[in-house]
Design a protein that fits this description.
The strands form 5 sheets. The chain has a 5-stranded parallel sheet, with helices on both faces. It is an alpha/beta fold. It is globular and about 75 Å long. Strand 3, helix 7 and strand 4 form a beta-alpha-beta unit. The chain has 28 helices and 19 strands. Helix 2 crosses helix 5 and helix 18 runs parallel beside helix 20. It folds into 3 domains: 293 residues, Thiamin diphosphate (ThDP)-binding fold, Pyr/PP domains (Rossmann fold, 3-Layer(aba) Sandwich); 155 residues, Rossmann fold, CATH 3.40.50; 136 residues, Rossmann fold, CATH 3.40.50.920. Thiamine diphosphate (TPP) binds next to helix 3. Thiamine diphosphate binds next to helix 3.
């Protein structure tokens, strides 16, 4: 990429109003500068780069043509919004992206009036946009609403539900389909093939016919303009039958990097009085930065990197990641049982299903960004004798909750849910935290829920899941690498509903569920040092809880404290309810539970997030001290924080 040496235009653009003051012919230069700024910023912060590079021209063109923030611009997923942030008054903070107290890596209402709708989970932008169109209509406000949605995000049902509704309402809504023929991985499915067919051979063909069709569909004043603007008609081709059947006026495909094409198309969409319009813009993920263009993932998400070489600063792992352990363990189980199959919803590498796919392509399903379908599809597989592992991050499984309840749990179908990214995930922040699955699955009758305390236990859980065929089962594990324990050759089958004792103390019992185990052990060491001997148990199961173990620990210790990487209403609540039902809270036992705070926690490094939540060793020790009370703690030579 060449750096712009003439007067930087970007310095003159503090807000989109400044951008609108620039003549059209200056915009390519602005695009080049914006791209350079984006690459430089993300090289320092890490984050989503490829998607942003692909929408530089589109972002400039939209802000140039539309009156943002009065006109509403909604980015689907929001991971492509860094250029938008740079242009909307946040350039001075762009190098704080995804850091503690910094800018979010997604659009966020609380951050800027230019972010009218928060995002991070995909395929919501058309629904939200339609709501805004209606809000404006009912309040008598003149306003354009533009939703920018990727071809990957277009694979989710919600996008079609919204278009179906928009078409029916004949809403004046503009949808820009940002088609880069990529999701995180190459997109799968018939829709992706359909978009490819729309693009192939159609751009710039049948100019006369395109102009004719275009003018037939637009009101008179646009027709006149269209006739005059030969250049503009070049970019039009009416033929997105599916979208047209849904009631949209389809425009495209157009070159999403060519401002001379984008600007007239957007102006006409703005001025048109027709109902919903879909502009099909073809872009290239990673555009303009060679290492990104060349990379298989187009630099979807990157660590900090060297701008010249593109080399990413990936830390050397000390232990295998949980994701990798899951993928490899599943391969082992599949070698022993040909009913084992794996499903991912557009996240093959994130979930480790890519490892499985290499070994068992025929037993792997990437269903697109379609979590709801993934779950019910797994239900069908399970109903007819297969052993589906439906691997979905904790946060994305939220979208398929009714499917989990209605299609799986009620029918007692043995679908296995490997739940990655349990707990805090760091830079992706609130929207991606795996906070709620213990609570939202734990209330479902018949569900078995495990949480891995270390990577070896995850291996045991994969094996256990493969063997367990009585009903639905989930096992959760955190983002990142394991804690470096020795790995068994193959996983063992765990006893359902049985925890394990990690060390015996006498005064305090810490019962950890999941990835806080190491911190619980560190806390116990500290407590021992103060003469407060601590037992540590790894609960392994959030459901069914190990009632025998819990009751024994309750009887034999003065204080019982649970720790988990999940929200209120999870493991700690289940233990409290059991203790109270057995009358064990009336015996003088002190009981405390540590869980994620009852608020949405902003992004920071994962360790910092746990520290702030009081879920690290220090937090556990503090909670023990607070529960035991000043007298005992001071007698032990410590002080209460
Ligand atoms: C419900 C949901 N599932 C999965 C994801 C993870 N995810 C983030 S971006 C992305 C791919 C989006 O592809 P596309 O819309 O084409 O945008 P591009 O990155 O190609 O610009 C996926 C699967 C998500 N954000 N939301």
């Amino acid at each position: 990429m060449t750096r712009q040496l003439s007067t930087p235009l970007l310095d003159q653009v503090a807000t989109p109003a400044d951008l609108r003051a620039l003549p059209d012919d200056k915009l390519p230069q602005l695009a080049e500068e914006l791209r350079a700024e984006l690459v430089d910023a993300v090289s320092q912060t890490g984050g989503h780069l490829g998607a942003g590079l692909g929408v530089v021209e589109l972002t400039i063109a939209i802000h140039h043509v539309f009156d943002t923030p009065h006109d509403r611009l909604i980015f689907d997923v929001g991971h492509q919004c860094y250029p938008h942030k740079i242009l909307t008054g946040r350039r001075d903070r762009i190098r704080t992206l995804r850091k503690e107290n910094g800018l979010s890596g997604f659009t966020k209402r609380a951050e800027s009036e230019y972010d009218p709708f928060g995002a991070a989970h995909s395929s919501t932008s058309i629904s939200a946009g339609l709501g805004m169109v209606e809000a404006a209509r009912l309040q008598g406000i003149e306003r354009n609403v533009i939703s920018v949605i990727g071809d990957g995000a277009m694979s989710a049902g919600m996008a079609y539900e919204a278009m179906n509704n928009a078409g029916h309402m004949d809403a004046r809504q503009i949808v820009i389909l940002n088609d880069n023929d990529m999701s995180i991985a190459p997109p799968t499915g018939a829709m992706s093939a359909y978009l490819a067919r729309l693009v192939s051979g159609r751009t710039y063909i049948g100019l006369r016919e395109a102009a004719k069709q275009f003018s037939k569909r637009m009101p008179k004043f646009i027709q006149d303009k269209a006739r005059k603007t030969e250049e503009m008609t070049r970019t039009f081709f009416s033929g997105g039958t599916l979208f047209e059947e849904l009631g949209f006026f389809y425009v495209g495909p157009i070159d999403g990097h060519n401002l001379e094409h984008l600007l007239p198309v957007l102006r006409n969409a703005r001025d048109a009085q027709v109902g919903p319009i879909l502009i099909h813009a073809v872009t290239q993920k990673g555009k303009g930065y060679e290492p990104a263009e060349k990379a298989a993932d187009k630099y979807h998400g990157v660590a900090k990197f060297d701008v010249i070489t593109g080399a990413q600063a990936k830390a050397k792992p000390n232990a295998p990641s949980y994701t990798k352990v899951f993928g490899q363990s599943l391969v082992q189980e599949a070698e022993n049982d040909d009913r084992v199959v794996a499903i991912t919803a557009a996240m093959p590498s994130g979930t480790g299903v890519d490892i499985f796919e290499k070994a068992f392509a025929d037993r792997t399903y990437d269903v697109g960004i379609a979590e709801q379908h993934a779950v019910t599809f797994a239900g069908g597989l399970a109903a007819d004798g297969m052993k589906p592992f439906c691997a979905i991050y904790s946060t994305f499984l939220q979208r398929a909750y009714d499917q989990v309840v209605h299609d799986i749990a009620i029918q007692k179908l043995p679908v296995r849910f490997p739940i990655d990214r349990a707990g805090f995930v760091g830079a992706d922040g609130q929207t991606h935290a795996g906070s709620f699955d213990i609570a939202y699955l734990g209330c479902l009758p018949g569900f078995v829920i495990m949480a891995a305390g270390d990577e070896a236990d995850l291996k045991h859980m994969v094996r256990t899941a493969a063997e367990y065929d009585e009903g639905p089962l989930a096992f959760r594990y955190p983002r990142g690498e394991g804690i470096g324990v020795e790995m068994p050759e193959r996983g063992q089958v765990l006893d359902i509903g049985k925890g394990r004792i990690m060390r015996e103390g006498g005064k305090v019992a810490i019962v950890s569920l999941g990835g806080r185990l190491k911190q619980a052990l560190l806390a116990a060491e500290t407590l021992d040092g103060y003469g407060l001997p601590a037992t540590v148990a790894d609960a392994r199961f959030a459901k069914p809880i190990d009632t025998g173990l819990i009751e024994r620990l309750a009887r034999e210790h003065e204080l019982l404290i649970t720790v988990e990487e999940g929200s209120v209403g999870g493991f700690g609540s289940f233990v409290a309810q059991h203790l109270s039902s057995q009358g064990l809270l009336d015996t003088g036992l002190k009981y405390r539970s540590l869980f994620m705070p009852d608020r949405f926690v902003d992004q920071a490094a994962p360790d910092r997030m746990y520290e702030m939540a009081g879920l690290d060793a220090r937090g556990i020790v503090d909670a023990v001290f607070a529960a035991l009370g000043r007298e005992q703690v001071e007698a032990a030579g410590a002080s209460i924080a």
